[in-house]
Amino acid sequence: MLSFLLTTLTTALGLLVVDLVIPGVTIATFPAALVAAVSVGLVNGFVKPVLSVLSLPITFLTLGLFSLVVNGLCFWLASVFVPGFAVHGFLAFILGPVVLSFATTFLNKYFAEKGIGSLPANQ
After folding, report:
1. What is the CB neighbour count within 10 angstroms for residue 58?
2. Tens digits of per-residue pLDDT, 46-100?
3. Do 33 and 85 contact (CB within 8 A), yes or no?
4. Phi first, then psi: what are they for 45, rounded to 5°?
5. Cross-strand pairs, 85
6. Cβ-count burial of 121 within 10 angstroms (0-12 exposed, 13-18 middle, 19+ buried)?
7. Is 80:10 a contact under the CB 8 Å cutoff?
8. Rounded to whole angstroms, how far apart are CA atoms 1 and 91?
9. For a FRET experiment, which of 28, 32, 33, 67 has its CA 20 to 30 Å from that of 81?
């Protein structure tokens, strides 16, 4: 349960970073970022694998570049379900998931170095 909460928190913080860095991505409030983080996780868990398999031939032909479109589509789809989270424009569609990936990776590494989210060995 703690792992889920920390993953949701880091994704929400990453979404706030995307909101600051990428024009076209807007997040109204921190609670909206938390709901958006859950939405992004659900879309990436259920919809993205199906889209990835269906788009495999075109991804192969474009040497993997079409995966950016699949990521953008999933990012946009997550924003459709969350009020207060919007993705507008091609730049936000393509670069939003890339920046989100970098931000969450950095935050996960930061929390891991601080020992947040890991239980002591004797518990």
Report:
1. 13
2. 999 999 999 999 999 999 999 999 999 999 999 999 999 999 999 999 999 999 9
3. yes
4. -80, -35
5. 27
6. exposed
7. no
8. 35
9. 67
Using 50, 70 and 90 to split pLDDT, how confident is the model at 118? low
Side chain identity, residue 66? F
The whole-model pTM stands at 0.90
Cα–Cα distance measured from residue 64 to residue 56, given in angstroms and rounded to the nearest whole number: 9
- Name residue 79's amino acid: S
Residue positions counted in the chain: 123
DSSP category for residue 20: H
Structure tokens at 35: 């709901």
Q: Give the per-residue pLDDT at 113.
A: 86
Residue 121 has a pLDDT of 46
Q: 48 and 70 in contact (C-beta within 8 Å)?
A: yes
